[in-house]
Amino acid sequence: MTVPAFNSVAWFEFGSDQPERVKEFYGELFDWKYVLNTNTPGVTYHSVMTPGGQQPTGGVWESEGAFPNYAIFYVLVQDVAATVEHAERLGAEVLMAPVCDAAGFTFARLQDTAGSHFGVFSAPAL
Questions:
Q1: Do 56 and 46 meet the contact criterion of CB atoms below 8 Å apart?
Q2: pLDDT < 70: residue spans in the chain
Q3: Has this prediction a pTM greater than 0.85?
Q4: Among the four residues 2, 14, 86, 92, which has the most C-beta atoms within 10 Å?
Q5: Edge to edge, what strands does the sheet with 45-49 contain?
Q6: Cα separation of 108 and 74, whole Å?
Q7: Do 103 and 41 contact (CB within 8 A), yes or no?
Q8: Which of 37, 79, 87 is nearest to 62 (CA)?
């Protein structure tokens, strides 16, 4: 298994009020498979398994209309809180403060100075 380098894009996510349509479209287009992820109680999230992949590389979140539909990327960082603070100093807006799921992943969502939405995350120590 290859571990992504810090500060590289290592995850993607779709947020949709029509997750079945998203999963059907990309499943047909790229032969993606989906596995229900239960790491965050109260959130319906499907991990994306790409062909030949040994682990998920993205996800589909069932937003239930809480947000406009979106597709974003996540950058793997060593320290989510420190990265969020640095991004704020550079002028970014925090859209979702750092949170940690039951598996130990920490993630946050930001808006850059040009208005683009992106995320950062860190993995639990092995």
A1: no
A2: 1, 126
A3: yes
A4: 14
A5: 33-37, 45-49, 58-62, 8-16, 70-76, 117-122, 106-111, 93-100
A6: 9
A7: no
A8: 37
